[in-house]
Amino acid sequence: MSFDLESIVRANILNIKPYSSARDEYTGKEGVFLDANENPFGSVGGGEYNRYPDPYQSEIKHKISKLKHVAVENIFLGNGSDEPIDLMFRVFCEPRIDNVIICPPTYGMYRVSADINDVAIKEVLLQKDYQLDVKGILGAVDEKTKAVFICSPNNPTGNLIENDDIKTILQQFTQGLVFVDEAYIDFTGQESWNQYLDLYPNLVVIQTFSKAWGLAGLRLGMAFASKEIISYFNKVKYPYNIGLATLEVAKNALDNVDQMLDLVDLINQEKIKMLSELEQIESVKNIVPSEANFVLVFLDNATEIYDKLIKDLVIVRDRSRVALCKDSLRITIGTSEENQLFLKAFKKLIS
Ligand SMILES: *Cc1c(COP(=O)(O)O)cnc(C)c1O
Questions:
Q1: Which of 208, 248, 313, 341 gets the highest tally of CB atoms within 10 A of its CB?
Q2: 201-233 pLDDT, tens digit each
Q3: Are 197 and 3 a contacting pair, CB within 8 Å?
Q4: Which letter does DSSP use for residue 156 in this model?
């Protein structure tokens, strides 16, 4: 596949000389460290946080590498997966000149990040079955199109995107990046696209610790891509973008993968229970088959029901104003008790 990465990097980034931190200039672990203006005595409030963290998070990346079967040099860690999304714009998209393609209804952050970076968006709606309009996407590409965003399983619909369609985009759109957001991949039995980085130099896969791992409060996201793309992300990121406390918690999590798998099983079981209850409710018109930890449910007057649920202190997400989602609520799968409380309030309101 012919793909010229350098030709799509912004000129100011191409030759940038990144900040060189103390921990870039001396990477050894032994010695008397008087190079980073740290406090040698310790940390106020306890804990040992007086030293700057590894700028490239090598220890954690080795653990992720083993778990995901992706080489360390193909991994980037960010402050949530929002960081690699933003870096994609900052490295590759010239403000007010370039554009990206998104496929609504989808994750709102792609648009926000594009807007912040002053990069134009072309919308190619998903089809009625929430699959990609592949012809529409390829037809929307112009010479300034730098990326196509694909979310699978998609948020807010919950369905997986057909792998053959993703493959077609990867093969046909070779002038820019194909961003595959797999925030919910752990809830599926699906193989990650991160196993195909060698085949597709234009591929960027993102995953997160926020959902299946139960670490949304930590803010840790992963990107997988060619080592060239990763090295541009590393050049542009803040030098110490992941803190020591985050690295400690992530290390613990990665040493307890079985616990994550158990939580995923638990959530998937709760989802089955929730679905069987929702299916019996007459006013529920449609439920999108979900591979994620939420379900999108269609019903009349969804916004009204949403407002009333809030009065009962049950908070779901009203997606009614989103393309192709008129009169829908997105319901996250909670604990058994939480789901029962939701169902009780919901049934009372719509009967
Ligand atoms: C939740 C979510 C993320 C994760 O974002 P973080 O910044 O890692 O918390 C990414 N993409 C999609 C589609 C999501 O729903």
A1: 208
A2: 999 999 999 999 999 999 999 999 999 999 999
A3: no
A4: T
